[in-house]
């Protein structure tokens, strides 16, 4: 089965035309290489796989080799050879050069040392994720929720095959991918931390609590958190501060970005076991938030909560308008006092309640209940 991903192809067309260096970033196995090869198919393209020993040998003198190539140069898994960034800066600054560079990476600029500083003003970033509902089709939301968005997990022949793939992915990520970044943390320790986070999925970050549970310092668990965030495994959803008299939460919420990886860590192979697990509400919340962010791609996104219990799961500002989302795993969600407070205190232009049902209906002039299968209709928010 082939699932088309035109959004990323279009993003690359724009970025490559505009900037000498484009970085396509996202987690391992999310489809970056496939998209890059599709993008380079109808143009003069030279491809280097930096995990390949022969390609590493070819780049022993990278400035000489890359400087003699015209067209599009694709460098896959750039984080393996971070010294190439200084070479790319020199090549990108050549006068009248027609060569374009597309670099693929499985770690954010915060993890790949000095990339932002070295290529400042020369590089444009495109962030990629696994399959989203607008790509797989909204009718398959249950399958997407259980298996997550990694292509090989989603497209597996069975839930069992999908779970096995995810377990192998987790093991490879811990034992090979993290060490390739120069981060020397025992795989067992990081696995324990990651599994513990799966039980705190959707909760406010508390370094001291996690540190005590693992027998580690706050600084150490913070570093573990940043590694998982920088490799696109984890989302730290930051709190929004509104100038009100209420005491507001000021620590981020933590989500494992891919629902399939979450379920793998929790050993939830199918919908039946998921429905009987106490983490189902938190899992649903994280899944819905990722789908909304993947579809709408706001510049910044937040949650909002006060110490008195008022909260909103997702909040962002787009073109001066304020939008909120509340995620409810309930067939008949009701409008709560907390939603009314958020609507008023944040001065929301509209609030959506996302649920696993089938029908979209308004419950207030500024509040709409919407099924996860209907979120594609949210794309033209600026018209509201």
Query: Low-confidence parts lasting 5 or more residues at pLDDT below 50?
Result: none
Indicate the percent of residues in helices.
40-55%
Globular, elongated, flat, extended or rod-shaped: what is the shape?
A: globular
Instruction: Name the strands of the widest sheet in spatial order.
Output: 6-8-7-9-10-11-12-14-13
Tell me the β content.
Answer: 15-25%
- Overall pLDDT metric: 92
What Rg is obtained from the alpha carbons, in whole angstroms?
Answer: 22 Å
Distance between the termini: 37 Å
Furnish the topology, listing elements before pairings.
Layout (H helix, E strand, L loop, with lengths): L5 H13 L2 E5 L6 H9 L4 E5 L3 H6 L3 H6 L4 E5 L7 H9 L7 E6 L9 H4 L4 E5 L5 H4 L4 H7 L3 H4 L4 H22 L6 H13 L3 E2 L2 H8 L3 H13 L3 E6 L13 E4 L2 H7 L5 H5 L4 H17 L5 E4 L5 E8 L2 E7 L9 H9 L4 E6 L5 E4 L2 E5 L13
Parallel strand pairs: 1-4, 1-5, 2-3, 3-4, 7-9, 11-12, 12-14
Antiparallel strand pairs: 6-8, 7-8, 9-10, 10-11, 13-14
């Amino acid at each position: 089965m082939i699932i088309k991903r035109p959004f990323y192809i279009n993003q690359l067309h724009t970025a490559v035309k505009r900037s000498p260096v484009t970085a396509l970033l996202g987690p391992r196995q999310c489809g970056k290489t496939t998209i890059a090869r599709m993008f380079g198919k109808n143009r003069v393209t030279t491809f280097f796989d930096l995990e390949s020993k022969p390609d590493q040998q070819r780049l022993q003198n990278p400035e000489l080799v890359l400087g003699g190539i015209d067209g599009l140069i694709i460098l896959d898994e750039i984080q393996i050879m971070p010294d190439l960034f200084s070479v790319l800066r020199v090549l990108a600054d050549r006068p009248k050069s027609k060569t374009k560079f597309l670099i693929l990476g499985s770690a954010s600029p915060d993890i790949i040392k000095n990339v932002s500083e070295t290529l400042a003003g020369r590089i444009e970033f495109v962030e990629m994720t696994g399959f989203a509902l607008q790509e797989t089709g909204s009718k398959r939301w249950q399958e997407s929720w259980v298996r997550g968005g990694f292509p090989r997990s989603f497209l597996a022949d069975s839930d069992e095959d999908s779970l096995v793939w995810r377990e192998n992915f987790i093991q490879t990520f811990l034992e090979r991918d993290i060490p390739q970044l120069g981060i020397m943390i025992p795989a067992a320790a990081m696995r324990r931390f990651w599994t513990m986070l799966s039980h705190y999925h959707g909760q406010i970050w508390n370094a001291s609590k996690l540190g005590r549970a693992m027998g580690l310092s706050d600084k150490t668990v913070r570093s573990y958190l940043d590694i998982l965030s920088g490799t696109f495994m984890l989302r730290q959803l930051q709190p929004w501060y509104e100038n009100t008299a209420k005491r507001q939460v000021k620590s981020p919420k933590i989500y494992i970005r891919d629902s399939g990886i979450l379920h793998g860590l929790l050993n939830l192979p199918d919908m039946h076991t998921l429905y009987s697990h106490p983490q189902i509400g938190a899992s649903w919340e994280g899944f819905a938030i990722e789908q909304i962010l993947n579809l709408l791609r706001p510049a910044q996104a937040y949650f909002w909560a006060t110490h008195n219990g008022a909260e909103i799961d997702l909040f962002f500002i787009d073109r001066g308008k304020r939008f909120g989302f509340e995620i409810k795993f309930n067939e008949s969600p009701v409008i709560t006092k907390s939603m009314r407070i958020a609507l008023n205190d944040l001065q929301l232009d509209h609030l959506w309640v996302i649920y696993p049902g089938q029908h979209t209906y308004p419950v207030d002039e500024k509040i709409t209940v919407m099924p996860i299968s209907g979120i594609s209709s949210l794309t033209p928010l600026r018209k509201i």
